[in-house]
Amino acid sequence: MEKCLPEYSRVLGISSFMYLSSSYFKNVKQHITKITNYLNKEHDKEKFRNECRELANYLIEKKKAPQYYSQRIWEGTLIYWLQYYYKNLNKYGGCPMILEKAHKDILELKYEEEDFCERRSKDLQAIKQLKSNHLRTCDGTYLKK
Question: Torsion over CA of 42, 44, 45 and 47, rounded to 10 degrees?
């Protein structure tokens, strides 16, 4: 599943440095920094994932270049200067840098996969415990697994 999300290249021109001083870029960077710092400290899976979804929506919205900016260079600048903040967001299915709605949909699938594997592991462990008790009768709990 990790191969489905893109790894953005870090190729920029000298023009991108002009964008760094813009208040628009500074606001985007400040928001990304604030939220990724929060996510690094978050220990609740659902809060982490919800905040990651919101962050993805934010970046998808901010991907559109401001007026008079080159779209290609703007996106490259975002990728180059902001990707670092996403580096360690690996828990609970992760929180990669997302610039496209389709990539957000892939992240949702990854979250579903993580949840399924977690439930499967718990259910298999419960079945194993039930088998070890040598139950002679079949109750509803065993059948639900």
Answer: -80
Residues 19, 121: contact at Cβ < 8 Å? no
Total domains present in the chain:
1
* pLDDT tens over the chain, length 145 residues: 455 656 555 556 677 788 888 999 999 999 999 999 999 999 999 999 999 999 999 999 999 999 989 899 899 999 999 999 999 999 999 999 999 999 999 999 999 999 998 898 888 888 887 776 655 555 665 556 5
What's the domain range around 109?
2-144
Helix axes 23-41, 71-82, angle to 10 degrees: 40
Whole-prediction pTM:
0.78
